[in-house]
Amino acid sequence: MTPAPAPAFTLDLPTPEDADALAELHHRVWRQAYTGILPEHALGADELASRRTMWHRTLEQRSSAQLSERLRIGRGPDGAPVGFLTVGPSRDEEAPRPLELQALNVDSAFHGTGLAQALVRDLLQDRPAYLWVVEDNPRARRFYEKEGFRADGVLTVDAALGDLREIRMTR
């Protein structure tokens, strides 16, 4: 029997040196997933600059212990970030769970490799949580369902993002 090939990714904690690469990944994944769904201003160069600021602030202001509880990245064979997952305390007043899966972004070149599943299972594990997902993103919704999340009937509309409809999923 031939052994299974080694995964084309590794899981890791980010360092401040990863901030620019994570911002570019974040921006690229949004362009891959949401071009034609989000207004261009949400996908343009200004948004990339905003993500750079956010990632630098996140990685420079949090301790390694804080990051290990809230953030995991996937690195490709060359060591560059190709996906990330963030979890944290609920950001909603009437949250169905105290823990929120706040972001899961994986470069389309790594779809189907098991990276997203590995990120969720490593950081979130099987803890009860909830998340918001774009209603018009069936691939993401199917993925979350495989991880035990179910739409709970709550919908929100983000007018700043062109009346983007998001549904809440819980497990």
From TrEMBL:
Record bears the keyword Transport: no
Assigned keywords, A-Z: Acyltransferase, Transferase
Gene3D superfamilies, per the entry: 3.40.630.30
Domain named N-acetyltransferase: residues: 9-171
Listed InterPro entries: Acyl_CoA_acyltransferase, GNAT_dom, YpeA/RimI_acetyltransf
PANTHER family according to UniProt: ACETYLTRANSFERASE, SPERMINE_SPERMIDINE ACETYLTRANSFERASE
The protein's name: GNAT family N-acetyltransferase
Species annotation: Brachybacterium ginsengisoli
